[in-house]
Write a structure and sequence with these properties.
Elements lengths: L10 H10 L3 H26 L4 H8 L3 H7 L9 H10 L24
Helix pairs in contact: 3-4, 3-5
């Protein structure tokens, strides 16, 4: 039986170089996916820290559990500012938005080895 492959410490860098590189379109797609993941993770984290189920949060927001489930899905791209504000308010939070220059390196982008 073959041993599972062990990933090298530079695996993420290799992925970046091979699939994303300096391609502006792929960088933009990557950044958008990262933003979607951040939103989904933030909603899930806040909800679980508040000790709420998706159904309980949905009731506080006056929506359905399936809507909350979609908001917590990293592949979901239909976030509306109004819904995010409703979710935040139900969790005792507020939404804060930042605009950053296009092409500014992401905090997720791997650093080149020295």
């Amino acid at each position: 039986m073959a041993r599972p492959r062990r990933f090298q410490s530079d695996t993420l860098q290799h992925f970046w170089d091979r699939y994303i590189g300096d391609n502006p379109e792929r960088i933009a797609e990557y950044e958008q996916a990262a933003a979607d993941i951040d939103v989904a993770r933030a909603i899930h984290t806040m909800r679980t820290q508040a000790g709420l189920t998706q159904r309980q949060l949905a009731k506080k927001v006056s929506t359905t559990a399936s809507v909350i489930c979609r908001l917590e899905d990293a592949d979901y791209e239909g976030h509306s500012l109004a819904m995010l504000r409703r979710v935040a308010a139900a969790l005792g939070k507020r939404v804060q938005i930042r605009f950053v220059p296009v092409g500014k390196p992401s905090r997720r982008r791997p650093r080149k080895a020295a």
